[in-house]
Amino acid sequence: MRIARRSWPALLLAAPALAAAPAWVTTLRSGGFVLYMRHTITDRSQVDTGRLGDRAGQRNLSAAGIAQAQALSDAMARLRIPLRPIRASPVFRASDTAAIMARGAPVDVTMELVADDYAADVPGAIASARRAMGTPPPAGSNALLVGHIHVFGPAIFGRMLAQAEFPEGAFGMVAPEPAGPRVVQVIMPEAVIAAAQT
Q: Which of 22, 142, 175, 183 is the most buried (most CB within 10 A)?
């Protein structure tokens, strides 16, 4: 069927408008930020022992957490948000999340981002995570740090965060400023996935 040329303006007006990307997407595409990501969904039937290197003695990613990490990795790639370098806590739920997010790129597994219940010196662990968040990424990129809620909250907000404030899979968008790292906003995992679908 052929549509008369004079009908085109009416058809264009009837077409649904494409949703604009959230402002954080455009901002992150230019780089310059640190994204502190909480590991994705874990198996709450498992218990942490505080033994690094012992997968059986840690709370690991659940099947839902693996799927969530894959969905977030795919979404970041579709949104064209550059993520380099990628660093992670040595606790398996964080390093496993980081490996999925990295999409084959190197991951620096570092004690700078270790969980509080795996650190002999908890204030030191919080301070080292704060230093990592205050380190600017290479030009044109965003650093991705994959860690834990009880390090992020005290390091940035000076207090523990509730689970609903920073759920598994959430991102803290941090500006690494000379006066210290400043949180710009918390981006929920579902918001990242939704933004990639617009």
A: 142
Q: Does a structural domain hold residue 155?
A: yes
DSSP letter for each residue of the chain: -PPPGGGHHHHHHHSPPPPPPPHHHHHHHT---EEEEEP--B-TTS---S-TT-GGGS--B-HHHHHHHHHHHHHHHHTT--EEEEEE-SSHHHHHHHHHHHTTS--EE-GGG--GGG-S-HHHHHHHHHHHHTSPPPTT-EEEEEE-HHHHIIIIISSPPPTTTS-TT-EEEEEEETTEEEEEEEE-HHHHHHHTT-
Q: What is the DSSP string of 27-56?
A: HHHT---EEEEEP--B-TTS---S-TT-GG
- Residue 19's pLDDT band (boundaries 50, 70, 90)? low
Q: What are phi and psi of 115, to 5 degrees?
A: -70, 150
129-156 pLDDT per residue, tens: 999 999 999 999 999 999 999 999 999 9
Range of the domain at 78: 32-195
Nearest 10 degrees: CA dihedral of 180, 185, 189, 191?
Answer: -150
The residues that bridge with 37 in the sheet, in sequence order, are 146, 171
> Which residue in this structure is represented by tokens 């002999």?
120
CATH of the domain at 187: 3.40.50.1240
- The number of domains in the chain is 1
Output the pTM of the full model: 0.90
